[in-house]
Amino acid sequence: MESRRVVIVEGGADRKRLQKVLAEPIEILCTNGTVSSYRIEELLEPYEDYDMYVFVDADPSGEAIRALFKRVYPEVIHLYTERKYGQVETTPYRVLAAILLAERFLVHPQFLL
Q: Closest Cα partner for 89 from 32, 28, 12?
């Protein structure tokens, strides 16, 4: 069964980190930093029938991207890393696994220990 979910992150390092934790093939898109509403619509157009998740850093840049998504795609589900980790790419694997598992993503069991 094909997954109908897409996760939007800021950069390639975030994508690689999530791919390592996920135990299912999920499309992970990168915004590559600051984006416009036009760029978001262009990026997500092929995925409009998907459940969309935004998982960005807990910093001013990430919050700006998150605010833009809330305005352009209010139905998007927001995933949050803890502020003490700051970035998705520096969040411990076990914490990422717990965040993803809470949204019913399949994660590799070794990251749940």
A: 12
> Which residues in the chain land under pLDDT 70?
1-3, 33-34
- Looking at the structure of the chain, the number of domains it has is 1
Alpha-carbon gap, residue 95 to 113, rounded angstroms: 10
Instruction: Name the residue range of residue 19's domain.
Output: 5-112
What's residue 1's pLDDT? 46
Contact 59, 89 (CB under 8 A): no
CATH code assigned at 10: 3.40.1360.10
pLDDT digits (tens, 9 = 90+) for 58-76: 998 899 999 999 999 999 9
